[in-house]
Amino acid sequence: MAFPEPKPRPPELPQKRLKTLDCGQGAVRAVRFNVDGNYCLTCGSDKTLKLWNPLRGTLLRTYSGHGYEVLDAASSFDNSSLCSGGGDKAVVLWDVASGQVMRKFRGHAGKVNTVQFNEEATVILSGSIDSSIRCWDCRSRRPEPVQTLDEARDGVSSVKVSDHEVLAGSVDGRMRRYDLRMGQLFSDYVGSECGRGCGTGREDGGPARGTPASLTYPSLPQGPITCTCFSRDGQCTLVSSLDSTLRLLDKDTGELLGEYKGHKNQEYKLDCCLSERDTHVVSCSEDGKVFFWDLVEGVLALALPVGRGVVQSLAYHPTEPCLLTALGGSIQCWREEAYEAEDGAG
């Protein structure tokens, strides 16, 4: 006689504040977990990047080398390197252990909004308000990018990378997915008039070519994109726009699968993501909260009060119900209600 499989535990949302860390680096522009979720990075308006153990609340190292505020950062798969981008138009490769600048890549014509490593941490991809994504070889001494993706007609606000795809969101209202294996570009327009089935106008862009980054185009009037991401299972893409709406799209067809509303996002570049088990859509908000929606039902599950002001950035742990939020000059660490902190970590 076979025993029935145990039912999976219902998802738990991180709503218990464990710690608030005053980062001491001006306004925190972004907070990011490292690849295994044991550490986090904070990007400061004071030109610094800091590495923390968020559960213990300990500062491990400060990285100084940018000439202006730091806007985004990422860690490599083996935790040996960091990359960052900021208002000085530079992309910086750091050695984690020594805190030293290993490389500083210059070439963008405007501030760098977003940076990501590829899976092997051999290439850094950077997105800028100059409408381009540039790919920098970490192993080469050449100063110029190995590839430039310049199809966007306005600033690039978000870049995410999978093993063979690059997902980019732009102020021009389009989410572009570059399939590097197939050499194809898929483009979905996400505007405030977007209805079901929107975003199915697909382009085969082939190798990167198109709009020169030096040309300027007026922004489209609808739906500047602030953040994009892949679902953890790789089947969907999530996109947030300045019409205070998040949309879930089928990655392959572009079909609109769901819309999520209730938060406020009309002025700022705010983060969104999916929870560690793809059960909930999560977004920052300009009213001091973080919103959680049930992915399938589309209903609001939790409006988590963080504080007064704009919750500008968030990061979700890769495997556990643990959330980091950034508001003003501090970050907050949240866990599920049943979580009991280990000695020294509470």
UniProtKB/TrEMBL annotation:
Cited InterPro entries: WD40/YVTN_repeat-like_dom_sf, WD40_PAC1, WD40_repeat_CS, WD40_repeat_dom_sf, WD40_rpt, WD_repeat_MORG1
WD repeats: 21-62, 63-104, 105-146
Gene Ontology CC terms: catalytic step 2 spliceosome; cytoplasm
Location(s) in or outside the cell: Cytoplasm
Keywords annotated in UniProt: Cytoplasm, Repeat, WD repeat
Pfam families for this protein: WD40
SMART domains for this protein: WD40
Domain of life of the source: Eukaryota
Annotated GO biological process: inflammatory response to wounding; mRNA splicing, via spliceosome; neural tube closure; placenta blood vessel development; regulation of canonical NF-kappaB signal transduction; response to hypoxia; response to lipopolysaccharide
Family of the protein in this entry: Belongs to the WD repeat MORG1 family.
Protein name as it appears in the record: WD repeat domain-containing protein 83
Species name: Rhinopithecus roxellana (Golden snub-nosed monkey)
